[in-house]
Fold PTS sugar transporter subunit IIA.
Amino acid sequence: MSNPAPSAPLITPGLVALDLAGGDRDAVTRSLIDLLLAEGRITDADGFHADVRAREAQMATGMPGGVGLPHARSAHVTVPSLAVGRVPAGVDFGAPDGDATLVFLIAAPTEGDSDHLKILASLARRLVHESFRDSLRTAPDATTVAEIVTREVAPR
């Protein structure tokens, strides 16, 4: 398990899952959490999952355009991170227009409030553009997904 520096990139190819099974939002979220754990971005998968679930219980995080946007600030997060999953079969994140086929899990340290909000705002601004969503859905590999997100979303 690697241990990223505080200046670690927001997303890497190791934080991208191209073909997640559908099912329920918990299972999809857990798959993305496992990527964060493997990359050394979180210290406790169960603890972080509980924090994400608690946030999700406050308000659904589905967005129009087939997007799920689970997120949480957590003491279990070591560095601000974004994990991305494509879910071809779709998964219900409570969006008004149906299931999410793109899921973005934002993980922010408890003390990183402004980072979390910057990432969320930047991502939300890009996600309203169908061309951005389509580029992620059709990207040939995890490296391309990470490059698109880094170029379009990562705080500058």
Q: What stands out?
A: The radius of gyration is 14 Å. The first strand starts at residue 16 and ends at 17. The chain has a mean pLDDT of 90.
